[in-house]
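$ run holo --ligand "adenosine-5'-diphosphate" --emit tokens
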Amino acid sequence: MAQVQLEHVTKIYPGDIKAVDDVSLTIADREFLVLVGPSGCGKSTTLRMVAGLEDITAGTIRIGDRVVNGVAPKDRDIAMVFQNYALYPHMTVYKNLGFSLMLRRQHAGWGNPVARLIAPARYQKARAERDEIHRRISDTAAVLGIEELLARRPKALSGGQRQRVAVGRAIVRNPKAFLFDEPLSNLDAKLRVEMRAELKRLHRQVQTTTIYVTHDQEEAMTLGDRVVVMKDGVIHQCATPLELYDRPVNRFVAGFVGTPRMNFLDGRIVRDGERLLFDEGSCRLAVGGAHQDRLSGFVDRPITLGIRPEGLAPADGAAPETTLRVTVGVLEPLGDRMDVYVATERNPDLICRIDSRTPLREGQTTDMQVDLDRVHYFEPGAGGLNVSLADDPS
Ligand code: ADP
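-- output --
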């Protein structure tokens, strides 16, 4: 196992396409790190550079203490699992699992009866190698619960079983790091959730340093010790899942992480005597105590307020300047909770996640209370910085 380090790594494809732009990142030994971002953000290219499948235009990649920039993929001691499994169709599961180990045998071809007579020492070594490979295949099959599948060929396996074998092929080699490129994308939703839990359990067990690429923020949040959010070849934030959720550095991260996504309300900061208020156009909200100082420089300037769907709740005798007057749109019951689409006069696309027993009906006008402690303020624009975090040392 090993730490993996990227220092100022850039990848420019022919045609001057900058896929990865000056990425620096250290993945700790035994860490499970997820790269997530919309399609085309450069996450697969980053992973493929670590694997050695793409040349690096600039920068340095280290696996353990070794700079691997010029090292061939097969000599990097990493194992990659792809979306399409890439199993050998003509081989049994047993052989698929053992194939890479067989290739590395030093005494291949000496395990036969003739060798036993003419070169007994080599014969013994060949047998020991074979026994070791068998042991590793058996251990891996046990870890993944696929012992009963060892004699089958890939075409006789379900999607989930194939994916398990693909993961097994990585584990069996006991590499320094696992690299996963969207490994669950081909599975149906239910199986994806199951495999997700299984990958997490597996990582607890084997603790191999892991870099995992996905476009699915939910998968990223459930799997990663830390999650790296990328866009346009650049890292926007690298943090624990909870930190990303609670303290997104900019509007892009805030909007990318979490379902339903964060609500954004355009408005301005206005002064009311000593206090600051957020003026939404149709409603005014008090600026929470923690934000007063940080927002004093934004008076009379446009700003975007961000609040997650669970930060809005039906107002029940709430204090003034903590509520939004909304019209209720579509209700989406989800069992215990429901998503309710609401609109203010100025901001039409808001969503609240509330108790599904709340008596609301479509078309009704009501007040929604805003949890002022959970509000973020962003500079205008799609990538606007989260100014509520500025100066915050934590
Ligand atoms: P992601 O995995 O986040 O979807 P990629 O790393 O695959 O993104 O791609 C990043 C950018 O690089 C995209 O704009 C993509 O079109 C471009 N790209 C990827 N591979 C190549 C290639 N072989 N040649 C040219 N451009 C490429």
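-- notes --
The longest helix spans residues 120-144.
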